[in-house]
Design a protein that fits this description.
heterodimer, A: alpha/beta, eight-stranded parallel β-sheet, 18 helices, 17 strands, 39% helix, globular, disordered N terminus, B: alpha/beta, two-stranded antiparallel ribbon, 13 helices, disordered C terminus
Chain lengths: 493, 425
């Protein structure tokens, strides 16, 4: 029970709790000014315990062990792959996002089968190498961040060890992405595993029928092992207990993903497993969860689009309900886009403020004739505009108005962004002294304020100013400026 | 790089542990050690050097060692019992709409709220009422993405006709009439004319209504008061009442009118539970608590959905833990999903088609909030609505699926992917 109490307190740890166990020599070896500062960062997970070199010394062995326990996440962190080509899953400190921050974003694995031809046999046929390369090359730039996919799951649909082995070899040749080997027959699994024995793939999966053979493989090759017990948490827990007794330490739990009938069982199972680990002190469930939205593709008579649609929303549901790794099939951009963005979003720090500082921002090296634009201080609005402006290149002024963290549309609707406020923001920014022209480009979504803004600018002493209505979305700024900047009248002067 | 990397540190720590272990086992100094069924997470290197490690003198008595592990030969039973919790609080139930016998003219009423557990925790207790969907209609032509416009082109500026399609074809539980044209900066439609629009929709469909304003606190107050009077007894939801109305001095009037004519109010605040509580407290002075629904602000996926998700999860847990000022059902303006550029922007061929990308955005925005506990969803696209209805129905009851259904997914072939028909709507 003491173990449970310690883990419960993980997010309630105070720097003092940690400080008491540190060497308290203020040696600064960790780069912090003193042990207390290090303790504060440790509690916030901004540094790792091993950054404190003295604690690793023999005389602090006990304290080190205590600290390790104290800081250990309830959900074990498991590494799939090795070195630079690995992905960490689990490591969760909390059940609900608002309690702290979710660690280790959901790893997204896309499947290939061992029956895919290596190269297309005829035009249009999907092939192994193409598909692996597509997974590797998937990229979406979202507010300046590159969102990508993480892993390849190789499924044995042939059930033939030789075929599986050769497919795994071929995949391993073309990609360094971490791998999941999917085969329920341990002979098939072993054949594939031998081909990538130094890459620490996730073995999927141990079941009630094959668990001892799979356990042997996991031990022999030092690989994490999936545990698959569809809609049977008694079995899942029993298998975990058995495998731990067997000596396998890195497990990934799959309570089964049912996408139609049984969706509520799936959501409840994921929730119960996670909740028992966090609130019930159930150590056997303190492992990452794997979901398989790919099951949307089996057994249904729906069209391809409908199946892909289902897979996409099941992925989003499971990410919101505690999945740590997902295996998917569709590589369509429209399917993966909400998946990678929602993953990025829920793994941001919930303490991150909704707004950025208001005031004047510059991009490039703006001069007296550079365009002047305006947006709001909602962080996602600002970051969107910022990433677009950086992408276009060029020199701009940007006034960020304080709308208490609302987007342009909401702020205009809710009267947080008014003509008066805009005029004041421009005046206060001091940009008028930096530029020679008198043009303010406002977001298209604030178009209806344009007339009023000119009047209000006059009221704050900026007479003769003109408002230009920009595009409704900052992705259109480059085109807009191509067509309108510099303004005609200015050219004539 | 630091002199001792993480790996080095771990090895060193492990070596320390091992030294102790060897000593406890009485093995120090021995040249050959055979360990059976013992898990070591360190490399061979350390084992080989074990003999040369100078073991510290240990004065504490040796701890009792666990017996060496024997590999199990059969599955060890570990029965599972779900951790369940009692919650001291409950979300209030709110009834939308009123039938003839209740003083209105609706065909049926819609009851929401009443949650006694987090959303869809069927292992604790099922919620008494399912979440519901209200479809947006507008009293003027608004900008609509093509993916939606194709379904409503003919009823674009006719909320009554739009409402009929939404109820008859898409299965809307409620209809929202956004009186956008009342905006002083748009058409400045007078309250009486706006109220007439509401009457038309009341006649066109018999589901309960939500009445949306334009966002201008003073104008909204005038419009809502007129609508409240004209729709007396219909128990419509006025969307929305804000702290801004309080500052402008019009909140009391609207809230009192809602109370007098038997309507509900939507208490709207921007992602801030303290302000949500503050507004609710103000409203309690004028209107019964079971006539208030909360809107905590819905941002689109990619544009802050995580803030909305987290604030709804927090609000619901706080409500269940007894915070009475947050014990109101919640509404999400899911249609805000369409503000995300990913719903309509040309992003290149690999991201097409937009006719799926857009509605999937609305769907996933709604689903995240569904799991956070939201009770009413403002929606627009028929495919998103259909999916939500299906998922809600599926999540409300357990079906105990047979494991066989997916037990062999690993080696199942995805047949004839290219033979599938294109999606038929």
């Amino acid at each position: 029970m003491t173990e449970r109490e310690i883990k419960k307190a993980v997010t309630k740890l105070s720097p003092i709790d940690v400080y008491k166990l540190l060497p308290r020599t203020n040696c600064k070896e960790c780069g912090e000014p003193n042990c207390m500062a290090f303790a504060a960062k440790l509690v916030n997970r901004e540094v790792s315990l091993e950054d404190c070199l003295p604690i690793l010394k023999k005389e602090h062995g006990k304290a080190y062990k205590k600290l390790q326990d104290m800081l250990a996440p309830v959900i074990k962190e498991i590494t799939i792959g090795t070195g630079d080509h690995s992905v960490k899953i689990g490591g969760k400190l909390v059940m609900y996002r608002h309690e702290f921050t979710y660690h280790n974003p959901v790893a997204l694995a896309l499947d290939v089968t061992d029956e895919l031809p290596l190269h297309p046999r005829f035009s249009g046929e999907e092939a192994l190498i193409d598909r692996v390369k597509k997974v590797e090359n998937f990229l979406y730039n979202y507010i300046g961040r590159d969102l990508t996919l993480d892993m390849i799951a190789i499924r044995s649909t042939s059930n033939d060890p030789t075929v599986f082995k050769s497919a795994v070899e071929n995949v391993a040749k073309v990609t360094k992405l971490p791998l999941i080997l999917c085969a329920l027959d341990s002979n098939v699994m072993e054949a594939g595993l031998v081909a990538v024995q130094d890459r620490r793939p996730l073995l999927y999966a141990a079941t009630k029928d094959n668990w001892n053979n799979m356990a042997e493989l996991a031990l022999m090759y030092n690989c994490p092992l999936g545990v698959f017990a569809p809609n049977d948490l008694n079995l899942l827990k029993s298998l975990v207990k058995t495998l731990i007794e067997y000596g396998v330490e890195d497990l990934v739990l799959d309570p089964g993903t049912f996408v139609d009938e049984g969706l509520s069982d799936t959501v409840n199972n994921f929730t119960m497993v996670r909740r028992n680990a966090f609130k019930g002190g159930d150590d056997l469930f303190g492992f990452p969860l794997i979901g398989t939205p790919i099951t949307a593709w089996f057994g249904g008579k729906d069209s391809k689009e409908m199946l892909a649609w289902k897979e996409a929303y099941i992925a989003c549901i499971l990410m919101s309900r505690y999945a740590d790794v997902l295996i998917m099939h569709s590589l369509d951009g429209w399917v993966q886009l909400p998946t990678v963005i929602w993953r990025f979003n829920i793994y941001t720090d919930p303490r991150k403020p909704v707004s950025v500082d208001s005031g004047l921002y510059t991009f490039g090296k703006p001069d007296k004739m550079s365009p002047l634009m305006l947006t709001t201080n909602y962080s996602l609005t600002y970051f969107t505009v910022e990433s677009d402006l950086k992408k276009f290149g060029g020199d701009y002024y940007l006034v960020v108005a304080d709308t208490e963290g609302l987007s342009v549309e909401s702020a205009v609707a809710g009267r947080y962004l008014t003509a008066e406020l805009i005029a004041e923001a421009v005046k206060k920014s001091g940009v008028a002294e930096k530029i020679k022209h008198k043009y303010l480009i406002i977001p298209g979504r604030a178009a209806r304020l344009s007339g009023e803004i000119e009047d209000e600018l006059k009221n704050v002493g900026l007479s003769g100013w003109r408002v230009m209505v920009g595009p409704r979305d900052s992705s259109g700024i480059a085109k807009f400026l191509d067509e309108t900047w510099p303004p005609k009248e200015e050219e004539n002067e | 790089m630091k002199p001792l990397g993480k790996k080095g540190a771990k090895e060193k720590a492990a070596a320390t542990e091992l030294t102790g272990l060897l000593e406890l086992l009485g093995l120090e100094g021995k040249r050959e050690i055979e360990l059976e069924d013992v898990e070591l997470s360190i490399g061979e290197l350390i084992l080989q050097s074990a003999a040369t490690i100078v073991a510290p003198r240990v004065t504490t008595p040796p701890a009792v060692l666990a017996p060496p592990k024997v590999k199990p030969t059969a599955i060890l039973e570990a029965p599972f019992t779900p951790f369940v919790q009692e919650y001291p609080g409950q979300v209030r139930e709110v009834t939308l709409g009123a039938t003839k016998s209740e003083g209105g003219s609706r065909g049926k009423t819609v009851v929401i709220g009443g949650a006694i557990t987090p959303a869809f925790y069927l292992f604790e207790k099922a919620a008494p009422h399912p979440p519901v969907i209200t479809v947006d209609t507008f009293d003027m032509q608004v900008r609509l993405p093509k993916a939606i416009r194709m379904y409503v082109e003919e009823v674009w500026d006719d909320p009554a006709a739009w409402a009929k399609i939404a109820v008859d074809k898409w299965g809307a539980d409620l209809i929202t009439v956004h009186l956008l044209s009342t905006d002083p900066l748009i058409k400045d439609t007078p309250p009486a004319e706006a109220a007439k629009t509401v009457e038309e929709v009341l006649q066109a469909v018999d589901v309960p209504l939500i009445i949306g304003g334009c966002g201008d606190p003073k104008k909204d107050a005038e419009v809502f008061m007129k609508v409240a009077e004209v729709a007396e007894g219909e128990r419509v939801l006025l969307s929305s009442l804000t702290l801004d109305m309080g500052e402008t001095g019009v909140l009391e009037g609207v809230a009192k009118a809602a109370e007098k004519y038997g309507h509900l109010v939507l208490s709207f605040t921007a992602l801030d539970l303290n302000r949500a509580r503050e507004l609710n407290r103000k409203l309690y002075d004028y209107i019964p608590e079971d006539r208030i629904i909360m809107d905590l602000t819905t941002a689109a996926l990619g544009y802050g959905l995580e803030y909305s998700f987290t604030i709804h999860e927090r609000a619901r847990i706080a409500a269940l833990m007894g915070d009475s000022e947050l014990q109101h059902p919640t509404l999400a303006g899911t249609t805000n999903a369409w503000a995300a550029r990913e719903t309509w922007l040309k992003l290149g061929p690999e991201w097409e088609p937009r006719r799926l990308r857009g509605p999937l955005w609305e769907t996933t925005t709604a689903l995240a909030l569904l799991l956070a506990g939201v009770d009413v969803f403002m929606m627009m696209h028929p495919d998103a609505i259909r999916t939500m209805r299906k998922v809600i129905q599926q999540l409300m009851s357990r079906s105990k699926p047979k494991p066989d259904k997916i037990a062999n997914w690993v080696n199942a072939r995805i047949k004839g992917e290219d033979e599938h028909d294109r999606e038929g709507n």
